[in-house]
Write a structure and sequence with these properties.
Blueprint (H helix, E strand, L loop, with lengths): L6 H40 L2 H34 L2 H35 L1 H4 L1 H30 L4 E3 L5 E3 L2 H5 L4 H28 L6 H35 L1 H8 L11 E8 L4 E8 L2 H7 L20 H30 L7 H9 L3 H16 L3 E3 L3 E2 L9 H31 L28 H4 L5
Antiparallel strand pairs: 1-2, 3-4, 5-6
Helix pairs in contact: 1-2, 1-5, 1-7, 1-13, 1-14, 2-3, 2-8, 2-14, 3-5, 5-7, 7-8, 7-12, 7-13, 8-9, 8-11, 9-11, 11-13
Length: 472
């Protein structure tokens, strides 16, 4: 049945499917790597065993999530050559080096220190091990830096020229890397990763508090997660507002789709809360709206004029219903995250942070919210860029490889089957690890015994307490 669909639609479905699977793992591992660095740093500074117990508990989960993120991301590079060869040819001189920089800096940094982080505590000592953990956390940030720079250039291209072959070529690398939307997108995504991780950690902590309120590790992880949610949720709302204003400046059609503004409003635009966008009719049916509030949010004036999609050729309209609803899912979940942070502050003020069961149930329910919000934000960003792959310069219809429908349908079907089977098992294993409560003296990852080769006997394990005797 898929073979009869348009190859362009199938190629977009395949890339969207693989990216949707991939993005949830980096959005978790970026925040979790930093959380592990904080836990190990607190253990070194205070000597409290609970921080090391939590470090070992979450290190196992990080190892699996990191591995699934790497594996799920590998196939996307191949799709550039198979399904999107025209795009690769046109943008390769600009985007190719930046993707190579991501491998040479971020991935090599992560890979170089990951083994020490996972298995090296008894080999190199606590302080050098902490340095390795910091390098892994730094590597995840660099990876986000380069990937988001690539994506931001596709949204707001800058610093480029074209050669006689019609390729985009770099003229100013500084302008290419730090293109107009990149700083806003980087802050928004990194905060999203931290918020996603805090919600997962908070949900796991709340789950175990509902079963045993006296578990010190569960209490500690829940408290740390709620501090992060209370601080990062409002910061993310401010960052999202700044990102939206930048998008209005550089990608107005995307904002029109997000707001559901098919018509222009010369005397102030309403904020459409809900409705049913009708792409054919060019209107939002059954709209529930607040007069002039959109102009106040976007232009900081009630009567400020806002252009609608009727000011653009219909062929340049993004798919409004998808963008309209994905944006509302993201914003709605953001409001719930803010509510969770505020309730945690109230519970902390009343001394009931570890005893208020409704808060714990709410935190458990919000555990997956970060992933859903990240996916909704990604859909808003990428679908809102349509009908372009490079905004305003290269159309999606002109970017695909000349493939027949059955060829793309076959690879898409294979991806769906393999991804759901492999990553479902990995996710279930992570959930099993999370369901087990952290213990006092939590065991760490256990590497296999090293093999003796070339007559060299492995050195005896190093006791970390020989290097550090933390005070209780």
């Amino acid at each position: 049945m898929l073979a009869h669909l348009d190859p362009l639609i199938l190629a977009r479905m395949q890339f969207g499917f693989t990216v949707a699977f991939h993005i949830v793992f980096p959005s978790f591992s970026i925040g979790l790597a930093s959380y592990l660095a904080v836990l190990e740093g607190l253990w070194l500074a205070t000597g409290r065993q609970v921080y090391m117990d939590l470090f070992r508990y979450w290190l196992k989960i990080f190892a699996i999530a990191f591995a699934m993120g790497v594996v799920s991301g590998l196939v996307m590079s191949y799709q550039f050559g198979t399904n999107w060869s025209v795009f690769s040819d046109k943008t390769g001189p600009v985007l190719g080096p930046m993707m190579a920089y991501e491998v040479l800096s971020a991935f090599f940094l992560e890979a170089g220190f990951l083994g020490v982080m996972l298995f090296g505590m008894t080999k190199v000592g606590p302080r050098l091990h902490f340095a390795a953990t910091l390098m892994v956390a730094l590597g995840t940030f660099f990876s986000a830096f380069w990937i988001l720079s690539v994506n931001s250039w596709m949204q707001t291209p800058a610093g480029y020229g074209t050669n006689p072959q019609g390729q985009f070529v770099p003229l100013d690398w500084w302008a290419v890397v730090f293109n107009p939307s990149f700083p806003f997108r980087l802050v928004h995504m990194v905060l999203a990763a931290y918020l996603t991780t805090s919600l997962v950690v908070g949900a796991v902590g709340a789950w175990h508090l509902l079963r045993d309120r006296t578990n010190p590790a569960a209490r500690t992880m829940f408290s740390m997660a709620m501090w992060m949610a209370a601080l990062v949720a409002p910061a993310q709302i401010l960052a999202g507002d700044a990102h939206g204003l930048n998008t209005l400046e550089h990608q107005p059609a995307k904002v029109m789709a997000m707001e559901g503004h098919y018509q222009s409003h010369p005397d102030g635009a309403p904020l459409v809360l809900f409705g049913l966008p009708d792409q054919e009719a060019g209107t939002v049916r059954y709209a529930v709206e607040i007069p002039k509030l959109s102009s106040l949010v976007l232009k900081h004036a009630l009567d400020a004029p806002l252009a609608g999609l009727d000011s653009l050729p219909r062929k340049d309209w993004p798919p409004v219903p998808i963008v309209f609803w994905s944006f509302r899912v993201m914003v709605g979940l953001g409001m719930l995250m803010l509510l969770l942070g505020c309730l945690s502050l109230l519970a902390r003020f009343k001394g009931r942070l570890y005893a208020w069961a409704p808060l714990h149930r709410f935190a458990v329910a919000m555990g997956p919210a970060g992933f859903v919000a990240v996916l909704a934000g990604w859909i808003t960003t990428e679908v809102g860029r349509q009908p372009y792959t490079v905004y305003g310069l290269l159309r999606t219809a002109d970017s695909a490889s000349p493939l027949a429908g059955p060829a793309v349908a076959a690879s898409l079907t294979a991806f769906v089957v393999i991804y759901f089977s492999v990553f479902a098992m990995g996710t279930l294993y992570i959930l099993r690890l999370m369901a087990k409560p952290p213990e006092a003296g939590e065991p760490g990852l256990q590497p296999g015994a090293p093999i003796r080769t070339a007559g060299i006997t492995p050195a005896p394990a190093v006791d970390p307490d020989r290097h550090l005797q933390p005070a209780e």
